[in-house]
């Protein structure tokens, strides 16, 4: 696929906002792939951590909107512990989740959760499952 690099896409406001929210800088990643190799759920992600960061570097934010990966991330920080550049893919996923929620896009509805599960599971577990680290 041909990718056109233009100044506007490399300085997208959405990417800058995600960097502000996450406290991470996408250009610090040199695409070694260690984060994806160690991620326990990368096999199930449509856009794994290394690719997600690359898309941020390239300003391809639109590709990340609607991605399931941000909701699959467990927040286990294995990616961060393996990164030779101390980049936290988990924080980028957190930033993406926050952006989604700010735009009214959620991955689940509480009405979709079976009532017996709501009654049985601790409330904290349900809220954590919906929101991960998003505050
Ligand atoms: S481990 Fe770090 S440097 Fe390597 S691809 Fe992942 S975020 Fe980038
Ligand atoms: S924090 Fe998320 S992206 Fe990082 S290794 Fe764990 S599941 Fe994968």
Could you outline the blueprint of secondary structure elements for this entry?
Blueprint: H1 7-10, H2 13-22, H3 34-38, H4 49-57, H5 61-64, H6 69-72, H7 78-82, H8 89-102, H9 115-120, H10 123-131
Helix pairs in contact: 2-8, 4-8
Structural class comes to mainly alpha
Shape: globular
List segments where confidence is low: pLDDT < 50 over at least 5 consecutive residues.
Answer: none
Can you tell me the number of structural domains? Answer: 1
Q: Determine the number of helices (DSSP H or I, runs of at least 4 residues).
A: 10
**Under the CATH scheme, which class?**
Mainly Alpha
Strand content: under 5%
> What does the average pLDDT come to?
88
Largest sheet: none
CATH topology: Fumarate Reductase Iron-sulfur Protein, Chain B, domain 2
Order of helices and strands: HHHHHHHHHH
CATH architecture: Orthogonal Bundle
- Distance separating the two termini: 37 Å
- Could you give the count of β-strands? 0
CA gyration radius, whole angstroms: 16 Å
**Percent range for helical residues?**
40-55%
Unique bound compounds: iron/sulfur cluster
Keywords for this entry:
135 residues; mainly alpha; Fumarate Reductase Iron-sulfur Protein, Chain B, domain 2; 52% helix; 0% strand; binds iron/sulfur cluster
Describe the model.
The chain has about 140 residues and is an all-alpha fold. It has a single domain, classed as Fumarate Reductase Iron-sulfur Protein, Chain B, domain 2 (Orthogonal Bundle), CATH 1.10.1060. It has ten helices and no strands. It is globular, with a radius of gyration of 16 Å. The structure holds iron/sulfur cluster (2 copies). The site of one iron/sulfur cluster (SF4) has 15 residues, from helix 3 and helix 4.
């Amino acid at each position: 696929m041909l990718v056109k690099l233009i100044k506007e896409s490399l300085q997208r406001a959405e990417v800058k906002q995600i960097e502000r929210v996450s406290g991470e800088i996408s250009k610090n990643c040199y695409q070694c792939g260690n984060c994806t190799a160690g991620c326990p759920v990368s096999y199930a992600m449509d856009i794994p951590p290394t690719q997600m960061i690359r898309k941020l570097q390239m300003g391809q934010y639109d590709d990340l909107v609607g991605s399931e990966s941000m909701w699959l991330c467990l927040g286990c920080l294995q990616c961060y512990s393996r990164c030779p550049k101390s980049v936290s893919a988990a924080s980028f996923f957190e930033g993406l989740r926050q952006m989604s929620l700010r735009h009214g896009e959620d991955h689940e509805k509480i009405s979709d959760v079976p009532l017996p599960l709501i009654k049985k599971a601790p409330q904290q577990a349900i809220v954590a499952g919906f929101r991960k680290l998003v505050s």
